[in-house]
Amino acid sequence: MNLKIDTNEQQNSVLNNINKLTQRKILRTQCPDAKGLISKITNICYKHQLNIIQNSEFVDHRSGHFFMRTELEGIFNDEIFLADLGSSLPEKSIYELKSGIKQKIVILVTKEAHCLGDLLMKQAYGDLDVEICAVIGNHALLQPLVERFNIPFYLISHEGLTREAHDLAMRTKISEFSPDYVVLAKYMRVLTPEFVAFFDKKIINIHHSFLPAFIGAKPYHQAYERGVKIIGATAHFVNNNLDEGPIIMQDVIHVDHTYTAETMMKAGRDVEKNVLSRALEKVIAERVFVQDNHTIIL
Amino acid sequence: MNLKIDTNEQQNSVLNNINKLTQRKILRTQCPDAKGLISKITNICYKHQLNIIQNSEFVDHRSGHFFMRTELEGIFNDEIFLADLGSSLPEKSIYELKSGIKQKIVILVTKEAHCLGDLLMKQAYGDLDVEICAVIGNHALLQPLVERFNIPFYLISHEGLTREAHDLAMRTKISEFSPDYVVLAKYMRVLTPEFVAFFDKKIINIHHSFLPAFIGAKPYHQAYERGVKIIGATAHFVNNNLDEGPIIMQDVIHVDHTYTAETMMKAGRDVEKNVLSRALEKVIAERVFVQDNHTIIL
Amino acid sequence: MNLKIDTNEQQNSVLNNINKLTQRKILRTQCPDAKGLISKITNICYKHQLNIIQNSEFVDHRSGHFFMRTELEGIFNDEIFLADLGSSLPEKSIYELKSGIKQKIVILVTKEAHCLGDLLMKQAYGDLDVEICAVIGNHALLQPLVERFNIPFYLISHEGLTREAHDLAMRTKISEFSPDYVVLAKYMRVLTPEFVAFFDKKIINIHHSFLPAFIGAKPYHQAYERGVKIIGATAHFVNNNLDEGPIIMQDVIHVDHTYTAETMMKAGRDVEKNVLSRALEKVIAERVFVQDNHTIIL
Amino acid sequence: MNLKIDTNEQQNSVLNNINKLTQRKILRTQCPDAKGLISKITNICYKHQLNIIQNSEFVDHRSGHFFMRTELEGIFNDEIFLADLGSSLPEKSIYELKSGIKQKIVILVTKEAHCLGDLLMKQAYGDLDVEICAVIGNHALLQPLVERFNIPFYLISHEGLTREAHDLAMRTKISEFSPDYVVLAKYMRVLTPEFVAFFDKKIINIHHSFLPAFIGAKPYHQAYERGVKIIGATAHFVNNNLDEGPIIMQDVIHVDHTYTAETMMKAGRDVEKNVLSRALEKVIAERVFVQDNHTIIL
């Protein structure tokens, strides 16, 4: 009987250890399309005794690429698993195993509070599962807001600096935190190609129009001048063509003749912050793939 | 007692005659803004014993203009009423008394059936209070559909004609019906300035994008290439700048990476027809005013 | 050289035969969740040399069920393929191989034209890939509309019949066409349990409210009385609890205090027809699965 | 020349005094409908040399009532102006002249931060023109958030108190601030009739469903159980029937089978906060009229 208890305890202990070792990870696969890819990948998962919690895949006929996002649960041996995958997938495949470790972001701002405030609130109250390492502004206006949420704020003024010098200072400060993503929460400056290249596919911007309409400065004033009946916002990855990077999310609201450029701006702020935070949520959940100038969201 | 009956009958007869004379009309006023305009106009209505059923007004601070739409009920003496109004309103005022007589439209089409079909259905079943005088196509494809609804179809092919000659033929045919509005229900040709000038502010077009994005040809293909996450449609008055006339109505739907240009086109058709018929409904209800390149919808 | 030509011809002939034999089919799998299901199913596809064109799957943790929709291309041997599947899947699995043969529907109507008209238009112009076998009305009002589209209309009046007798007559007529689905396009009668059981999970209804609000009669009047700021429509499978079957699709539009029950009805008609046709499109594309009182749309 | 300068100075001084005396006020009129009301009211404005900046009116045929909101600019003698109005309007008219003085609100909360945080952010950064006198919670959880925005937080726990005793304590504390409105920002307790009567038509609640669907507790769980494809939120005035007061604003978002009750809750939070803040904005702009169980928003 003692023995039996011992055995049970032993078993429990083994189970506990298994539970401790059990992890959830996300496999992201992006590769040239080929026959049998789902079968090959899921077989390898099965062989490694990794249970598929959720799986989504897509074949982009435009680019001839295959995309798959697989939530796995089990005991991982990353090295062997990825080696097995590598030998099964076509050349030029990209495959990553992402642990569920909280992703890190740095937020850049200028003077507008609404997008920043929404991210701070959501992060503080559990609706955005991310670590905000720092907020960096080229103005000091939002420093008190950030500090209320116990997050470090850095002022890097652009005054008296060339764009290159300012961007370099920004880039240096951002790099200290090795963030997974840089979020432009109404950061109202155009970035240098060096900056964009340095954080390639890692910079997410919110533009206050439904792109490709009203690219560039003062989109609400452009919208008012044109007399449109909808206004909107676009979250996108930044590339070197202004407001032309891969779009992640867009939304609009209806306006009418009673709106001025100012009341459009005010109404638009809710759209901007909603679109940015939803886009960021998809990105940090490892759901967003970039192919050429498009996004696939699984 | 006989007398009493007689009197009653006389009174009834008078009341009946009054009821017969009683009409509903819509007063549209568009003029430079000035103090006391609502007071002046409603006083004149009151003086003429016209009851205000519904009233809407707007001051456009951009242009400094005043707009008012007044649904009136009573016995109208149009000439005296309008003369009274004219002496009270500022110079350069536009004021019209619109009887509720059913407005007449001519519809132009090419090959696509959905917007046309929606207008035909709505007109046939009481959801669009308009007389469709004729449908004119530069292709014959939609003739059977139109004729099923007992509406005359005219084929005016553009084959072998210059744009000017074709437009002139179209204009001549349209003019036979003296329509209040010309509705371009996916009429896929650019109009000559002469055509546009001839039906100034009377041509309503549906463009298959959320303008000002994707002006011109193949907007869904442009949308697909750009990788947008919304597609839409815009109903607007036609002026001489392609897809740049005053916007009446716009709407969008969400799309994702699974859409091709073709499935965007298909999904977009419902948006197009909804936007066009809602815009037309506002126009024929005398609710739409044009000021510069904008619309005010009261 | 002749020989070579012959060989080529032979090869071409073989290729042509292969192309002729190559088909697209959709595999629908619905079963208790288990480990390795995706892997097992895709392996069998791979083994049968069936190429996966598109695949979607979902695990419903509420019911513990697994759902998968797989578009396959290749040369099918249905019997062996399904037997292979059957031996790999858990007990109580449902799996069907659907050929792309055009599905057949019968539409039931009463007096309202808009949903019917939208389906007729879409079917006639290629936006709804379905065969409309017949339209059956309990009133004659819509007969001319249906016949304009060269589709047979049957009048089965409910006058003087018990509900049971009328439903039986309807059911008998519908059964003549062996439809895949019965579409209630504003058919304003409550069905008997016998009728519902006979066409189990095959009856699609459009209800003119955002369910579960405003169940039953006159939902727009209920909406007007309640003073709501949105109105909507719900497409759902019919079960024996009025307006409580599994929901397929819902949408709403905004209304304000200027709306009456009548103008709500008018505005609502566009929502109703859009929601019904989009729901039907998903159903006939074999994308809709029913589990308990819910739908999974892949 | 000296004289001229003096005269100019005098004139400037007079103009300055006039400018100082010039105010903007909002006239709200709600009365039984009658002929000539717009004319009568605008005449009185004209006679008092008050310029109409913006005017909206509505006749509710359901109740036979007339509603008008008039933004006026000029030098006000409130007493005489209102007396003049009173003698012109029908019996049982309600008419108020609202100065643009910032309205005062008290916010009640329980544990959820999102609606509160949005109001705090908007008030702090100029998007909500209101004075937040205090936030009162029946839990202490949100105290730090409130205090970060330098607004007093009061904890009035319901523990160990009857509902009546707790409501009385809340009411007493609220009354200290004489607020124009009491905003329930996810205050998760049912109010006593005494409380509701005390702040009649002054309590604004946000309910996390599209009413009248999912009244009462756990609406997202109800929504999940029902398998709806939309979720939403409703801002309404509170009366003594749970979730049945006059609706101010509603909105929805689309959901699908991948949502759980928890992810519905998370996605719904953005809708809730948007709907509440937009409703509050309309209310404090004096745009919302209540008639029976409906709102008219001018």
UniProtKB/TrEMBL annotation, chains A, B, C, D:
EC annotation from Swiss-Prot or TrEMBL: 3.5.1.10
Domain ACT: 26-104
Enzyme class: hydrolase
Pathway: Purine metabolism; IMP biosynthesis via de novo pathway; formate from 10-formyl-5,6,7,8-tetrahydrofolate: step 1/1
UniProt xrefs under CDD domains: ACT_F4HF-DF
GO biological process: 'de novo' IMP biosynthetic process; one-carbon metabolic process
Annotated active site: D243
Catalyzed chemical reaction(s): (6R)-10-formyltetrahydrofolate + H2O = (6S)-5,6,7,8-tetrahydrofolate + formate + H(+)
The entry's keywords: Hydrolase, One-carbon metabolism, Purine biosynthesis
SUPFAM superfamilies the UniProt entry points to: ACT-like, Formyltransferase
Gene Ontology molecular-function annotations: formyltetrahydrofolate deformylase activity
Similarity comment: Belongs to the PurU family.
Function field: Catalyzes the hydrolysis of 10-formyltetrahydrofolate (formyl-FH4) to formate and tetrahydrofolate (FH4).
Name of the protein described by the UniProt record: Formyltetrahydrofolate deformylase
Species the sequence originates in: Thorsellia anophelis DSM 18579
